[in-house]
Design a protein that fits this description.
By secondary structure, this protein is an alpha/beta fold. It has two domains: 2-109 and 265-281, Aspartate/ornithine carbamoyltransferase (Rossmann fold), CATH 3.40.50; 112-256, Aspartate/ornithine carbamoyltransferase (Rossmann fold), CATH 3.40.50.1370. 39% of the residues lie in helices and 15% in strands. The protein has helices at residues 2-15, 33-44, 65-74, 89-94, 112-125, 144-155, 186-190, 213-220, 224-228, 250-253, 260-281, and strands spanning 22-27, 48-53, 79-84, 101-106, 133-137, 159-163, 181-183, 195-198, 235-237. The protein has a five-stranded parallel sheet. A four-stranded parallel sheet has the order 2-1-3-4, with helices on both faces.
Length: 287
Amino acid sequence: MQRRLAKSDSRAALVRTLAGRRVALLFYEASTRTRVSFEFAAKNLGAFTTVVTAAASSIEKGESLVDTGYTIQATGAEAIVMRHPASGAAALLARHIHVPLINAGDGMHEHPTQALLDAFTMLQHKKTLRGLHVLIVGDIFHSRVARSNVQLLSKFGSRITLCGPDALLPRLSATLADGVVVSRDFDAELKSADVIMMLRVQKERLAGLDLNVADYIAQYQLTGERLQAAKRGAVVMHPGPMIRGMEITAEVADGPQSVIVEQVQNGVLTRMAILARAFAMSGRGER
């Protein structure tokens, strides 16, 4: 009985964190995981949410990003969560508004909240990020998730290996952070990787690239057979959405070493913390 009361008190306190606050979700790109997790995160803290998309707003009529930001702020939003297809869009808008702006992904640049939830998930299965060998595989060139993970994990001393073919992983990628290694040999890297993070390979992005899909699957798809040859205790991650049969097989995605569903669950918890911190730092916290 006391435990149930304690849980009830804890939930009530959580809902009071941002009770009555207003959070706008400004999404210029389609999104399921990120948008829904931010919406649930805000509501779990007691905030009201409004979703603004490019297809159902003045954005479709040609309104500029800055003017849209001004409008959302003027109508009462106390924080804005934004996803935008242009790299640097979040930094641009943040210079023009005075409410917290959280970057939910900007172009091929960054996806910082994904990196935070990925790191949190790793720590649930590994003792520390320091010295952890993280293998990121797939379309690194187009991936904001890869860039943000490299930036975050390198700060905590992880060993990061980026793996993929030349067309999706330029040699220059090794300069993303100190100590990053670029490899073309997936099978060799699997033997020492503690975390295997697979990235989506979109077929529509392969047009014009010197890349054969069948060859890519043969060399870089994470299969059950490959996973059996990997380091014992390695966990499999994927930021989603997955393309089963392309970069990963169903048996691996749904297997015991996969923590992909946990990543999605941790997205809500991580984004709750991010929203609470953003409001607290701006002086807009609990009333």
